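Troubleshooting entry. The earlier prediction with pyridoxal-5'-phosphate gave an output that would not parse, so I re-checked the input for stray whitespace and re-submitted. Clean input:
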Amino acid sequence: MSNRVSPVWHPMTQHKVFGPAVHIERAEGAYLYQRNGKKIIDGISSWWVNTHGHCHPKIVAAVQEQVGKLEQVIFAGFTHEPAEKLTRKLLSAVKSRFHRMQGKRIEFAFYSDSGSTAIEVAMKMAAGYFAQNGDPRTKILALEGGYHGDTFGTMSAGARGVFNQMYAPFLFDVAHLPFPHEGKEEQVLAKLDAWLKKHGEECAAFIFEPIVQGAAGMQVYSGDVLSKMAAKCREYGILLIADEVMTGFGRTGTMFASEQANIIPDFLCLSKGLTGGFLPMGATLTHRDIYKAFYHDEKSKQFFHSTSFTANPMACAAALASLEIWEEEDVLADVARIEGEHLKAAAWYMARPDVLDVRVKGGIFAVDVRDDVSGYLSSIATDIYDFMLENGVLLRPIGNTVYILPPYCIKNKDLEIIYETLWRSLDSLRNEGVQQAA
Ligand SMILES: Cc1ncc(COP(=O)(O)O)c(C=O)c1O
């Protein structure tokens, strides 16, 4: 290892084989700009966080105004206007989306600082709810293939594999239900019935990414099967944790993916797009019964969880401005426009012999590329990443799944550039394969 390497340790990066990090100086709309002025189309919304475009002027102004007034204050025992306003607006946005559905109304918001912590909080609240009510439950049910974050709790709930295998001895037991792929729904429901008969009354929560599992390679499943799974869990009093860290804020075509399953979860976990992708923030939204379980004369019964930057005022201001954009603009019309473009491209990609499957859901487009090694360690991910970047597009395939998940401001002409560059990238892989075989 040379002494000249940067001391910055990057996430999800094998530094020994990966070249130096791409230095980004500024960003605007769907574009990232390098120091040399080179423009890169951000085809993955900078890890799924950005919704309305980089440096959206309204959010920039809101953060600038806030930073000069109050940058941070302890949130235990203290509050501030951005948090109060955000909470009212967020809860009203949720209410307007879920008002026709059966279930307990979401009325409280607990803030943290990432997707992982939003989930961790929900898991703790669920387990705590039963313990506080004198009926402790020790099991958690999750979907196979799920990804809920990188803390020990969220790793336990997520899929076991290359991401976390060296920590397996430290992870607690979580039951995993097979993913309900199209055509397999009835089998999965039967498995769920069998599991619930044995363990339903010991289970505190069912955790799931509604409609699309992101890190599993943008795996799509139906709202109908999710709705049935949820109803079965409810029969046993199991709490529903909807991990909408990726799917929230329009990614799947509705503001929240849970809407497509017609369920009001007991916990709606948000992050990434909450601040429009500007600042780190997590929110765990829940109903009165959960809040009441921790509402007590005894201090020992309070909810024990905090992160130093809980409800940071600048993050709240960004989230508030982002929600105002949702009120002022037809954001979902842009998601529908992107979906329309994706569907046209999907028809072309389906015809390729090196493509195994194409999925489109809302603003998400995913292609599974034929490869000897499937899954996260497929080497074509790096080849495609390099090719795309050399041609001015940021895509970061998950193994042999290449996906596009752009900010909603992206223009159709830039989507075309992405589809066309990816097409050439797959051609170049195929040509390489042919040459190697010859
Ligand atoms: C569905 C889902 N849950 C949780 C997380 C973890 O979020 P964070 O990286 O902000 O901790 C992610 C991150 O990609 C995610 O996609």
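This one parsed fine. Residues 114-116, 119, 147-149, 209, 214-215, 243, 245-246, 271 surround pyridoxal-5'-phosphate (CB under 6 Å).
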